[in-house]
Automatic annotation (TrEMBL):
Lineage: Bacteria, Pseudomonadati, Pseudomonadota, Alphaproteobacteria, Hyphomicrobiales
GO CC annotation terms, alphabetical: plasma membrane
Protein name (Swiss-Prot/TrEMBL): ABC transporter permease
CDD domains hit by this protein: TM_PBP1_transp_AraH_like (cd06579)
Pfam families, sorted: BPD_transp_2 (PF02653)
Protein's cellular compartments: Cell membrane
Membrane topology classification: Multi-pass membrane protein
Molecular functions per Gene Ontology: transmembrane transporter activity
Record-annotated membrane-spanning stretches: 38-56, 63-81, 87-106, 113-132, 152-173, 204-226, 232-251, 258-276, 282-299
Organism from which the protein derives: Ancylobacter pratisalsi
Record's keyword annotation contains Lipid biosynthesis: no
Keywords, ordered alphabetically: Cell membrane, Membrane, Transmembrane, Transmembrane helix
InterPro entries assigned to the protein according to its UniProt record, in alphabetical order: ABC_transp_permease
Length: 315
């Protein structure tokens, strides 16, 4: 379930970093590296939630819509509740979407793909309705901008939050009882049920924790753009899936490690940054990222097949 060896994507990530340093103008500057890490931080936090859902054998398409809804709720509530109250309300909205997903998948037994596509549309529609279809500007506030632009211990808050998110995910998966249950349910839900595991409760809790990771990412992103946008981060869910797939998390569930998430996120972030720096059209960014996902999944499948053949051939 959990591999003790560094994931193969670590070498891919290192190779991409070296190539970008050598051939992409301005990539290796300190300012650009910090910018890559700032952008990667939000993706990393939300990808931690996606990893939990994938380990459970599901998939989450509603993260982008949850972030958009959170941003609109934040700015809508902010005038009466203040910056902290507004950000808390936005985070609660994202957690609420995760709770609904977990209840429908775990308790009702609906397919995760259908459930998260449905909540994607519902959250997007609600965000557009609350905002009237237009972005809502947040009033200037040092407290409101601190999650995205502040520093703690000399480290940007967003990067520090991503580091803490990775630590939290590692503790849940490697040392927490709930993490072991997520692995068991993702590997074989029926066997887990027969073993006495409350599959519905474990699944609900997994989606709820995933929604919490998404809420943290939503708070930081809303703080960065300083507005409530009903179309904010439309590709976020797909980028988290891409990061997990490139990192080597099997979409069949039951396996996964936090390092796979980290290196997958860094690979996607560096790739996107390099595409911008060499002035390729945005459309090419999506095309090339899609090809990278297909290639990584295909290579994982071929590698697994080779290991199975080697195992059968061994005396």
């Amino acid at each position: 379930m959990r591999s003790k060896r560094p994931p193969a994507v670590a070498l891919v990530c290192l190779g991409l970093f070296l190539l970008c340093c050598l051939f992409v103008p301005r990539f290796a500057t300190i300012g650009n590296i910090e910018n890559v890490l700032r952008v990667a931080s939000i993706l990393c936090i939300v990808a931690c939630g996606q990893a939990i859902v994938i380990i459970l054998g599901g998939i989450e398409f509603s993260f982008g819509a949850s972030v958009a809804l959170a941003s609109v709720v934040t700015v809508t509530v902010l005038p009466t509740a203040g910056p902290i109250g507004g950000l808390a309300a936005g985070g609660a909205a994202a957690i609420g979407v995760g709770a609904v997903n977990g209840w429908l998948v775990g308790r009702i037994g609906l397919p995760p793909v259908i459930v998260t596509l449905g909540t994607l549309m519902m959250a997007s529609g609600t965000a557009a309705w609350l905002a009237g279809g237009l972005p809502l500007d947040a009033p200037p506030s040092a407290i409101f901008s601190w999650p995205a632009r502040g520093r703690a211990l000399g480290i940007p808050v967003s990067i520090l939050a991503a580091m803490l998110a990775c630590v939290a995910l590692h503790l849940l998966l490697a040392h927490g009882r709930i993490g072991r249950l997520w692995y068991h349910v993702g590997a074989n839900p029926l066997a887990a049920q027969l073993a006495g595991i409350d599959v519905a409760r474990v699944t609900l809790l997994g989606y709820l924790v995933a929604g919490t990771f998404c809420a943290v990412g939503a708070i930081i992103l809303t703080s960065r753009v300083a507005s409530g946008q009903p179309a904010l981060a439309p590709n976020l869910a797909f980028e988290t899936i891409a990061a997990c797939a490139i990192g080597g998390l099997p979409l069949s569930g039951g396996r996964g490690h936090v390092l796979q998430v980290v290196f997958g996120v860094l690979t996607v972030a560096m790739f996107n940054n390099a595409v911008v720096l060499i002035n390729l059209p945005v459309a090419w960014q999506l095309v090339l990222l899609g090809l990278a996902v297909l290639a990584s999944v295909g290579l994982q499948k071929d590698w697994a097949a080779l290991k199975r053949r080697a195992g059968r051939a061994a005396p």
